[in-house]
């Protein structure tokens, strides 16, 4: 089924061809017509499934028909758990919105940066993407009003609950008009997610897409048994020996992130790191130069394991394992996306072996293991 038969605004169909989106992904085929009909939607889908466009396109299509007002009343509100996801969703919205006539104003707001420029820029914004804390701060400062929101989108609702945003979410919901359309997306339908879906959604259409499995099949996974002392040299060996030009390395702490990036640089490998203690500017800059291929290695904590879309990322390395198997899948899901094969490597110390077995069991896939003992790491 082509995009043109889903009922979207013709201008958006043009915007889709400008991006070379040739046909809708399954989630888009299912969600778009329902949103256009004004239905509530519960979407169980991962990043990589095309979920962003599945709500952005019909929301813009619905707003295009309505008159533009020049005030601080938001008409569509997208609440997301992280700043990076906020920026990414806003990028998608502003691409499509630029094709509308008149151009529809959208914006992303998030904490960690100064609030004043955001307050000024909110005038005339119709679609707002926001992290919960900053959104409430802006409401308190009277920089915007939520009393005219017609459509609410909660993206990565499971992550929002994991990060402890339940209270903020309740406050936000209380500020919205009771008559509105609600779209909720989550990677899982865990118990806590179910409890909020029944509070927020009215008679929702349920859509589930299995992106996770498809993605995993595209990823070649290898584990290297290694001692703690040889981890750093092995990482550098793997990057250099395989001539990896764009690799995302995961560690489990802010300290390790800095440490690993620093050692890579000392050994002549261009690297930067991204974690929650860095300023928003520094994070945005690091991510941008990595995405554009100017930075060879980006070392990260799990903060960016979700929601960040880097197309065609060929390599992910787990310098340390995440605690939860779910996070492991999200981490390696940064590669092997959109039908491009990718490679995920995990460095496993004796202490981590048992945990890695648990991860594989949960994932229902066994990873090829290599003993790194015989690799000559002198000079790395
Ligand atoms: P998302 O799950 O929203 O993060 O989207 C995953 C990736 O797929 C993004 O890079 C999108 O630009 C891309 N994408 C989404 N929908 C389509 C489509 N219909 N055709 C081609 N690429 C798409």
Give a description of the structure:
This protein is of the alpha/beta class. The protein has two domains: 3-208, Rossmann fold, CATH 3.40.50; 219-374, P-loop containing nucleotide triphosphate hydrolases (Rossmann fold), CATH 3.40.50.300. The chain contains 15 helices and 14 strands. It has helices spanning 10-18, 26-36, 51-64, 83-97, 116-121, 132-140, 157-162, 166-175, 191-200, 211-217, 231-241, 254-266, 280-291, 325-332, 353-363; strands spanning 41-44, 76-79, 106-109, 127-130, 151-154, 181-186, 205-208, 219-225, 247-250, 271-274, 297-300, 315-318, 342-348, 368-371. A seven-stranded parallel β-sheet has the order 3-4-2-5-6-1-7, with helices on both faces. A seven-stranded parallel β-sheet has the order 10-11-9-12-13-8-14, sandwiched between helices. Helix 5 links the parallel strand 3 and strand 4. Helix 3 (51-64) crosses helix 4 (83-97) and helix 14 packs across helix 15. It is globular and about 70 Å long. It starts with 9 loop residues before the first helix and ends in a 9-residue tail after the last strand. The mean pLDDT is 90. The protein binds adenosine monophosphate. Adenosine monophosphate (AMP) is lined by residues 21, 24-25, 28, 47-53, 309, 311, 338.
Topology, element by element:
Layout: H1 10-18, H2 26-36, E1 41-44, H3 51-64, E2 76-79, H4 83-97, E3 106-109, H5 116-121, E4 127-130, H6 132-140, E5 151-154, H7 157-162, H8 166-175, E6 181-186, H9 191-200, E7 205-208, H10 211-217, E8 219-225, H11 231-241, E9 247-250, H12 254-266, E10 271-274, H13 280-291, E11 297-300, E12 315-318, H14 325-332, E13 342-348, H15 353-363, E14 368-371
Parallel strand pairs: 1-6, 1-7, 2-4, 2-5, 3-4, 5-6, 8-13, 8-14, 9-11, 9-12, 10-11, 12-13
Helix pairs in contact: 2-3, 3-4, 6-8, 14-15
The structure holds adenosine monophosphate.
């Amino acid at each position: 089924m082509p995009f043109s038969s889903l009922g979207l605004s013709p201008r958006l169909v043009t915007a889709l061809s400008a991006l070379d989106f040739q046909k809708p992904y399954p989630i888009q085929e299912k969600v778009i017509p329902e949103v256009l009909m004004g239905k509530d939607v519960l979407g169980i889908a991962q990043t990589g499934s095309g979920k962003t466009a599945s709500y952005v396109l019909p929301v813009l299509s619905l707003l295009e028909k309505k008159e533009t007002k020049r005030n601080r009343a938001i008409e569509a509100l997208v609440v997301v758990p992280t700043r990076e996801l906020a920026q990414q969703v806003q990028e998608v919205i502003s691409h499509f919105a630029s094709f509308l006539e008149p151009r529809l104003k959208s914006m992303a707001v998030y904490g960690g940066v100064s609030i004043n420029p955001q307050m000024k820029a909110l005038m005339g914004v119709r679609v707002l993407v926001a992290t919960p804390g900053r959104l409430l701060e802006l409401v308190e400062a009277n920089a915007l009003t939520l009393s005219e929101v017609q459509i609410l989108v909660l993206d990565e609702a499971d992550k929002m609950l994991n990060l402890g945003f339940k209270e903020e979410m309740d406050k936000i919901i209380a500020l919205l008009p009771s008559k509105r359309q609600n779209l909720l997306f989550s990677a899982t339908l865990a118990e806590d997610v179910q409890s909020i879906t029944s509070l927020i959604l009215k008679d929702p259409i349920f859509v589930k897409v299995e992106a996770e499995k498809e993605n995993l099949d595209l990823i070649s996974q290898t584990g290297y048994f290694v001692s703690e002392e040889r981890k750093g040299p092995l990482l550098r060996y793997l990057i250099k020996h395989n001539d990896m030009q764009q690799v995302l390395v995961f560690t489990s702490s802010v300290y390790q992130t800095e440490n690993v990036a620093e050692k890579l640089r000392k050994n002549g490998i261009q690297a930067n790191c991204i974690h929650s203690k860095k300023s928003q500017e520094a994070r945005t800059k690091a991510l941008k130069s990595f995405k554009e291929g100017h930075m060879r290695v980006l070392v990260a904590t799990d903060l960016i394991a979700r929601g960040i879309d880097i197309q065609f990322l060929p390599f992910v390395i787990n310098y340390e394992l995440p605690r939860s198997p779910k996070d492991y899948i999200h981490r390696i899901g940064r590669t092997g996306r959109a039908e491009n094969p990718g490679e995920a490597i995990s460095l496993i110390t004796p202490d981590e072996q048992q945990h890695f077995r648990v991860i594989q069991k949960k994932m229902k896939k066994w990873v090829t293991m290599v003993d790194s003992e015989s690799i000559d790491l002198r000079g790395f």
